[in-house]
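Problem: given the chain below (441 residues), write out its structure.
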Amino acid sequence: MSTRILGTALLAATFLFACSKNLKDNNLLQRGDASATKANVPPASSYDVALAGNAYVTTLAPGGTEVITDNGLSSWTNSGSTTSAYFRLGLTGQLNVSIRAKVPSGSSTIKVTVNGTSFTKTISGKNSTDYSIGSVNISSAGYVKVDLQGVSKTGSYFGDVSHVVISGTATASNVVYANDAANYYWSRRGPSVHMGYSIPSGNTAEWFYNEVTVPVGEDKLGSYFMSNGFSEGYFGIQVNSATERRVLFSVWDPSVGKTTLVRKGPNVTDNSFGGEGTGGQSYLVFNWKAGTTYKFLTRVTPDNTNGSTNYSAWIYTPESSSWRFIATWNRPNTNTWLTGLYSFLENFDDTQGFKGRRVLFNNQWIRTTAGVWKELTAGRFTADATATNDQRRDYAGGVDATTGAFYLRNCGFFADYVNYNTSFTRTATGQTPNININTLP
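Solution.
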């Protein structure tokens, strides 16, 4: 998709504003380690892990038609394709794996690989049946990957697979997978994560400055690296397709009235958006590069003559050695300076949620209404409902040990998550933004 889906940002910013700039997602539950959510639930003798919410076609062979639907793996025709299902185990020990499958015609031989150990199984029959695949030893807590590949078939396709069924001592407790069918789409997108910044008390912020670096290899399709978030909107960079990237700046409509464009920069597209909230959207198609640091600047100023507020955004691109103006939006029935400052990382493509992402945010500053720059060094790591409802635990945030920058990480089914609702402090850089405010385009 080419534009940002609004769920995460809208929920985060709404709660942000309501909680005096203390960033939490609107659906955030007040708890620490996500494992507490299932602490009092008796363990099941087995768990049915639905492919609809926990699997991806991780390799689609040329001509392959494989797809994950509400019923699981469908159109499984190509032996060169791989489908991968994921679940998290908190215990070590024996893991028993079965699959629930049916074959419309003929029989099929398939290969099932569990954390690197492969098994071959022949399946047949038009009715869904649980086929025992085999057992493996789980030596450490974390995510388990189950790969499905076709070997041979006598019918038109290998079969339909709805679930991976797991049991054994490794599943005695603390098993995590997406089990909320109403939200499988969001679970497959993966948890969105945020870093909220505290404005020093007694200061009114007019300008917000942030520096963003996406490490090489972390710029996966469907990523939104949002740098300058505030209570009424957001500003960052996206990977929209294999050939297109964007700088995106959007401001929501208020409860009464409509946000309108005041002006925009060269080659910037403007339109309105809908879905989970409405507002004004502006974007610049720009082939930004992983490994390069980009600087973001946002200004928010109330217009006391008509009861509205103006929102403006600029990005500094090293490729042009200059600040590039994106747009100014006017939000009616709004009288505010900058509040609720935050950054976030999300995946907006539900077919890409098995790919990990990471981003660095560094050297955050505000410029007050008195014209004084103030460095922001306090951050709070939070996550959206996919994390807080314990559908996935591949989320992390904090201070990067190498660069000293704040970082956010999500997706990829990594083992070592960081508890959300955790506060961090980075070391001050003392590097005041070198910007001539009066000469900005």
